Amino acid sequence: MALRSEYPRPHFVRNQWQTLNGPWFFAFDDRDQGIVQEWFRNPLPNGVQIEVPFCYQSPYSGVNIQEVHEIVWYQREFTLPPEWEGKGILLHFGAVDYHAIVWINGHLAGENKGGYASFTLDIAPFLCSGANTITVRVVDRPLTSQPRGKQKARYENFGCWYTPVTGIWQSVWLEAVGGTYLDHVRMVPDIDKGTLCIDYWLSGFEPGLTLKCDVSLDGQQVASLTTDIEEKHTFFSDIIPRRDGVLTLEIPDAQLWWPESPVLYDVKFTLLKGSQVLDEVQTYAGMRKVHAENGKIYLNNEPYYLRMILDQGFWPEGVYTPPSIDAIRYDVEMTKAFGFNGARKHQKFEDPYYYYFCDKLGLLAWCEMPAPYIYDEELCQNITSEWQQLVIQHYNHPSVMAWVPVNESWGVDQLTRKEFSGDPRLVHYLITLYHLTKCLDPTRLVVGNDGWHQAVTDIIAIHDYTQDADDLRRKYAAFKEDRHTSVFTHGNQILLDGFPYQGQPIMITEYGGVKAEEQGAEGWGYGESAKSYEEMLERMAALTQVILDEDEICGFCYTQLTDVEQEVNGLMTYDRKPKVDPDRFKAIFGVDPER
Length: 595
Hints:
Helix content is 16%, strand content 30%. The protein is an alpha+beta fold. The protein has three domains: 17-177, Jelly Rolls, CATH 2.60.120.260; 192-285, Immunoglobulins (Immunoglobulin-like, Sandwich); 301-589, Glycosidases (TIM Barrel). It is globular, with a radius of gyration of 24 Å. The N and C termini lie far apart (51 Å).
């Protein structure tokens, strides 16, 4: 059985599915001969076995090679169940880094560019009876113009950049659907009106379709709506009917989603043609609201103090890929056990089960775009394209409360240089990403540039890694005097010139990162290491107390949940062992200050 054999997408579930995780044939193509030699029509030459969905750089892949190979190929056979005959067949990839081209039985089925967004191909036209062959070519070059996050683009690890990830790193699976099926939905809760508005998109229009939506709580139906899908056109096009529509359901006496009480409503969609079921999807929704007002962050119309942890999502065995869903659940459970009510998933979009457990167990999440680095027009195209996909794909998670398109000016790194000549594209890029996000999702907060150099933003997010509480207090006092100050650790302005402070909520979204020599691990933390775990705890408490003492600060994000490779400043070791009793961390971070 494959290591990751569970249904891969728990927030949009179909019953008829088949995993393609497990052993595949795998080959490097360093001379870029595969397309010319038509590897997609033949067995891969010199192929070895790899365990999908683990990248070749990871131990769990079975390959575990660290050298740079920019072009890799995958291949395997599969056979469809007899009862799927005549159905539409969808091939899903959770994530492939970076540019994937897919063939089925030697026929080009499609391609995708982007290392974090999922993609789906309709492969029914290319299938035959009996065994079918899927071949995937992936190009992943160590370029700073593609979203890398914390993947190094140098020969050796350095600073806080780690093992790179090439190729398939999330699950691959098949689903059977009708000739027309539900492509995706956008569920918009409105707790003020007590409604759940659902925008839906079909794969296409055909006459005689009906969409039914049932909402239940604890097995009891609370709302149901059935609509006939009418042929719709606009003034600008009367050739192809539109494939989208809207449903609005009243949710009586709506129970709200909170981290402390994560109530979820079960939602089922059934697409019918007459009495024939074309598609059926199970999902869920949370009734909750996020907004900022008068310098405060509000959850469900109440001021809410954010106590967050930075979580990078690397694993010793799988690098980017968690070894199991139990391991993912453990990280969420430990985050809550340490006293946090939220997590900033740093420089990575995570396995779908991470957001699922945040939804189910009650943990707020910030979603952050993995960074490119040096601005150019290719970078701009790459990021704006994939960022839109990621926002759409993660929209329905009630745990997701904020979007972070840029971190620490990565992607506009020229802003941090003394020789910066004032290239106007850089600030326009920051502003564009803010408004582009709001175009897709006006219901959540957007952090324009987490750390510094902020232009348009819903939260003023500050990073500082001093290890001295008095120093942090002095720096923050200077910031209160001048919101454009460069006093914090990295010497960069918090707000860019020309962008005055407009009363946004203020948070310290990176601090701490304390290493304790008592751990005995080689690697680094921020500043001078603490000698013992006791000194580590004292330093954490002192720094955190400075933040709690500032009335205008609305929350914090401590660095970080786990050690990652050469960075050993986590609350847990890289193999997920807490460094001290979790209750001792909770005593520091779990304090809910009176507001």
